[in-house]
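Minutes, project check-in
Item: structure for the 251-residue chain
Input as provided by the requester:
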Amino acid sequence: MNHNLHSYSEVQVARAVTEDRKVQGDGRSTKPHAHLLSLPRQGRSREKLDRLLAAGAQLFGEQGFEGTRIGDVAELGGCSVGVFYQRFSHKDAFFAAVRSRWIAQALERVEERLDAIPVSTSAPQLLTLFVHEVVSLFRDHLGLIRAFLIYEADHPESSVPMLELARAIGDRLVGRVLEHEFAAGHSEPALAIRFGLEVLRATLVYLALRDTEGPLGLGDERLAPELVRMLAAYLGVGRGGMAQSTLGDER
């Protein structure tokens, strides 16, 4: 798993440092957005922090939130448990920081892919490239995304960051696709595009949580082309250059 050591957003990681934390009887915070007790200013300290966050991302992705032990995180991150607790008050706070770091990286990845697509790219090709990139993002980080989603199911108030990521990607795409007159026949094209993206997100979230259910799983190479076909039909995107269906072609 590639963690891009210095690409996470310090603003996102430290955004809730000043939030008051209400502690439940079991010692967990009811405000998972409260991340770091302090954000290091020196370069070496930041590198150590990032190694710790990268270790957390790896272990949460492999073992989930409940299955991950702080001692294992500290060992993989190259620090003592005592040093860990100097930075993070509890496991939930650390998990929230790992999630904020990943969200920043995911948004950066999608933006870089969109920026690399030539302006002359046709609407069908743009839609195809975008859908394949989002599907790849889920596949590449399936374990970690699943850990985020399961945690959010148990802590509904913690779902805001992932929703913010979806909105940010939507904002980035809407401006680009409107140049191609996506959903031109719709009275509110931007609304149609956002709704189509929400359907895409909901489908991938469902598959991430229940990957063995349904006609197509995240690992099925036919999934992305079929999602493209679904969105293209809804948005009124022409077929030229669009990924062809891999289902039902033999009649």
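Outcome recorded: Residues 91-116 form the longest helix (26 residues).
No further action items on this chain.
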